[in-house]
Design a protein that fits this description.
With 316 residues, the chain is an alpha/beta fold. 38% of the residues lie in helices and 18% in strands. It has ten helices and nine strands. It has helices at residues 16-31, 63-70, 84-95, 114-123, 153-160, 163-166, 201-207, 219-229, 264-285, 292-314, and strands at 6-12, 50-56, 75-78, 100-105, 108-110, 128-137, 187-188, 196-200, 233-244. Strands 1, 2, 3, 4, 5, 6, 7, 8 and 9 form a nine-stranded mixed sheet that branches.
Length: 316
């Protein structure tokens, strides 16, 4: 493989089986060429100037033991408590030495040569601060969250009322995912997602890490927002580079209900965090941009949404 300078940060919470498959795909990308992909072993040393960092958020499913035994070339960081997505990834960020840093979910599997393609794309324009590629779901089709607009009141209203689903190519109702854009060409976007988010180390030095006020959900949108505020480009890469179970650790998504190890208490905790994230993001970036009556309606809608989302998991 060609020379790349990359740190891969993977956060894990009780996803041992998924993490093992994810790490296997990452190691194959970093130790060998495509022609040898089937011959890869997890114990081979990584290519120069590359590192894999696994941050374990106090799992109790023997995930850390699996990493130490089967992937000795991986740097393992064990947190004594569950810090959430933002806090956990920030632990990995502090140890990342690469010129590029990739945040990768543990419920993903990379396609061959993915990491080389990602870094090569970042190298094409020094103004690119972050990138998310086209991401395919194990359940079929593209994960729409790899291509997002910012959740303005109108974009969120259209999305949660199902108007975007009815008119996915509409510029008026499709602002949440902006699927009216050409997904076969690379282009600038508002936000990708933390499932596969590659940034320059220089972005981290300028913008800092994730906002620890978010526990789960929202922190990636917040980070993309701040990256763009700092004047960097956020790009969508149009070639599929990975597959995503979606919700593998949180248990909130129907796409992964048959494979998620998330307990009922975990699902309730992450559901609460997802609702809190909406409120944090709005108050942080939009509250001063809109009149008081808009803010009142938005926060009321968030409260109503929380009732239905939590009820679903309390009754399951």
């Amino acid at each position: 493989m060609g020379k790349i300078d990359l740190s891969v940060v993977i956060l894990s919470f009780n996803t041992r089986k998924l993490l093992k498959r994810c790490l296997g795909s990452v190691v194959r990308c970093l130790v060998i060429g495509d022609s040898e992909v089937r011959k890869a072993t997890s114990t081979k040393p990584l290519a120069p100037n590359t590192q894999i960092i696994v941050v374990d958020n106090n799992s109790d499913d023997e995930s850390p033991e699996m990493v130490k035994k089967e992937f000795p070339q991986v740097k393992l960081i064990r947190s004594k408590k569950n810090l959430g997505f933002a806090g956990g990834n920030n632990l990995g960020l502090k140890k990342a030495s690469g010129r590029y840093i990739l945040f990768l979910n543990s419920d993903t599997e990379l396609f061959p040569n993915t990491l080389k393609k990602a870094v090569d794309f970042m190298e094409t324009d020094q103004k690119i601060g972050a990138m998310t590629p086209k991401t395919m779901l194990f359940s079929g089709g593209m994960d729409p969250d790899c291509h997002r607009g910012f959740p303005t009141p109108w974009a969120s209203f259209s999305y949660f009322l199902g108007l975007e689903k009815l008119f996915p190519k509409s510029r008026i109702f499709g602002q949440y995912h902006k699927l009216y854009q050409d997904l076969n060409k690379a282009h600038e976007i508002d936000a990708g997602f933390g499932t596969f988010m590659i940034i320059r180390k220089d972005v981290y030095k300028e913008v800092g890490g994730f906002d620890d006020n978010y526990f789960f959900y929202g922190e990636d949108l917040d980070y993309f927002y701040r990256i763009k505020q700092a004047g960097w480009k956020v790009m969508f890469y149009p070639k599929a580079l990975l597959r995503h179970h979606k919700g593998g650790s949180s248990g909130l998504r129907k796409e992964s209900k048959n494979i998620t190890p998330a307990s009922r208490s975990t699902r309730i905790k992450t559901a609460k965090a997802s609702i809190k994230a909406m409120e944090i993001f709005y108050k942080k970036f939009y509250k001063e941009k809109y009149p008081g009556w808009v803010t009142f309606l938005v926060l009321l809608a968030i409260k109503i949404k929380s009732v239905f989302r939590l009820l679903k998991h309390y009754l399951s």
